[in-house]
């Protein structure tokens, strides 16, 4: 199919959407139909004929619907590709074919919609002022962090008798249905659960206080009408609990031996100093990151533009898949509504970065790539040659270029805007 066989009309159906109308000449459609019939004839299974030997007319009539469907697919696909080349348009999404018509003389017309990149008029991205809010670290913050280390190294001592508040129970439990039968979906095994959890909403945990080792212990919980879990609010739930053992938590002493166990320091004073420095670095990093995001939001607000819906939808799907991979349950429709604003921001942020890089001539050099790979090798403690292998593919190298571009643009923005540090 040559370009001379196509008639192309294109119109703007939205800020990031184009509608294309394409007419394919009858001779081209007829030629393509013959090719499709020939392909079907090679594999056609018609009684009385070996594959490839059935008459063309018989093949065409026997497989008429399938041939027509394949013809449409090939002609539209080829016509759409050539139309884009002719108009020099780069689509961002698959075309949505809305109108398809084959005339009696075999002239074929179709209409398709697709997304394109927005035209961004970036007028202001310098001389903004944003605050970098740095929270002051307290001694209580450091002690809480030490307590977390202590909790992580707790061990559990078997206890006879009933569980007191704060003890732990190793148990299996099932949720019973209205007929008193155990539901397979509601069964959990080898759970270590605190009895009398400090959270007042942990009603199951509270009901474990007083239980001892034993099978088939029945717990009934009336969940209030305002309980935050939609699946439990206002319900009476019966649990069948098998307690395998009761345990008391034992925490290590906070002494110099503990400090040496959890760090490279020699005493508690050194551990506190190390934790404080680490937390201060984290606070500084988080505050800097938030200031950068606040700056991007200011730039986006000052330079409004629409973004392609297909890219936003793709970003939403990716975030939902990430959530599902973590094993978390969610209502995908509701999740999409919640995620959409942040997805739109992420897409706009990416376009802003690319446009600033273009306007300011910010590029990625071979030296930038070498330096970044050397940095990765040092951080991971791996030979440089091994890390270089990871970036030999086109996709990996393109991703690395993207990361470096982001870093360079962010550095440029921090140098050309005012970031004022304030206490949070």
From TrEMBL:
Organism superkingdom: Bacteria
Pfam families the UniProt entry points to: Trigger_C (PF05698), Trigger_N (PF05697)
Keywords per UniProt: Cell cycle, Cell division, Chaperone, Cytoplasm, Isomerase, Rotamase
Main location: cytoplasm
GO molecular function terms listed in the Swiss-Prot or TrEMBL record: peptidyl-prolyl cis-trans isomerase activity; protein folding chaperone; ribosome binding
GO biological process: 'de novo' cotranslational protein folding; cell division; protein transport; protein unfolding
Trigger factor C-terminal domain sequence ranges: 268-415
Keyword Cell cycle belongs to the record: yes
Claim: Cytoplasm is one of the keywords in the record: yes
EC code(s) of this entry: 5.2.1.8
Signal peptide positions on this chain: none
Compartments (UniProt record): Cytoplasm
Comment on protein domains: Consists of 3 domains; the N-terminus binds the ribosome, the middle domain has PPIase activity, while the C-terminus has intrinsic chaperone activity on its own.
PANTHER family: TRIGGER FACTOR CHAPERONE AND PEPTIDYL-PROLYL CIS/TRANS ISOMERASE (PTHR30560), TRIGGER FACTOR-LIKE PROTEIN TIG, CHLOROPLASTIC (PTHR30560:SF3)
This protein's name: Trigger factor
Species: Candidatus Glassbacteria bacterium GWA2_58_10
């Amino acid at each position: 199919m040559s370009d001379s066989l196509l008639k192309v009309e294109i119109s703007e159906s939205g800020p990031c959407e184009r509608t294309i109308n394409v007419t394919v000449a009858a001779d081209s459609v007829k030629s393509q139909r013959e090719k499709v019939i020939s392909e079907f004839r090679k594999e056609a299974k018609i009684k009385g004929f070996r594959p490839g030997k059935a008459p063309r007319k018989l093949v065409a009539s026997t497989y008429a619907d399938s041939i027509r469907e394949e013809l449409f697919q090939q002609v539209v696909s080829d016509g759409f590709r050539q139309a884009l080349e002719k108009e020099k348009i780069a689509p961002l999404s698959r075309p949505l074919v809305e109108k398809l018509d084959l005339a009696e003389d075999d002239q074929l017309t179709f209409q398709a919609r697709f997304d394109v990149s927005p035209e961004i008029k970036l007028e202001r991205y310098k001389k903004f002022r944003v605050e970098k809010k740095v929270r002051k670290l307290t001694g209580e913050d450091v002690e809480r962090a030490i307590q977390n280390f202590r909790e992580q190294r707790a061990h559990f001592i078997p206890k006879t008798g009933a569980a007191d508040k704060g003890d732990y129970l190793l148990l299996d439990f099932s949720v019973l249905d209205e007929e008193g039968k155990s539901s397979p979906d509601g069964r959990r095994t080898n759970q270590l659960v605190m009895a009398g959890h400090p959270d007042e909403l942990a009603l199951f945990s509270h009901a474990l206080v007083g239980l001892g080792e034993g099978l088939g212990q029945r717990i009934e919980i009336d969940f209030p009408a305002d309980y935050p879990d939609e699946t439990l609010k206002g319900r009476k739930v019966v649990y069948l609990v098998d307690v395998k053992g009761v345990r008391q938590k034992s925490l290590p002493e906070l002494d110099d031996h503990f400090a040496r166990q959890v760090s490279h320091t020699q005493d508690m004073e050194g551990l506190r100093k190390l934790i404080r420095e680490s937390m201060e670095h984290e606070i500084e990093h988080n505050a800097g990151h938030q200031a950068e995001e606040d700056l991007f939001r200011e730039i986006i607000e000052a330079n409004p533009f629409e973004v392609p819906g297909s890219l936003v939808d793709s970003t939403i799907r990716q975030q939902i898949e990430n959530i599902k991979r973590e094993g978390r349950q969610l209502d995908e429709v509701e999740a999409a509504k919640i995620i959409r604003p942040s997805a739109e921001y992420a897409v706009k942020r990416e376009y802003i970065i690319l446009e600033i890089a273009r306007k300011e001539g910010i590029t990625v050099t071979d030296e930038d790539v070498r330096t970044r790979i050397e940095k990765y090798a040092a951080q991971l403690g791996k030979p440089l040659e091994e890390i270089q292998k990871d970036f030999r593919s086109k996709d990996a190298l393109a991703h690395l270029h993207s990361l470096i571009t982001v870093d360079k643009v962010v550095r440029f923005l921090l140098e050309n805007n005012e970031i004022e540090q304030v206490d949070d």
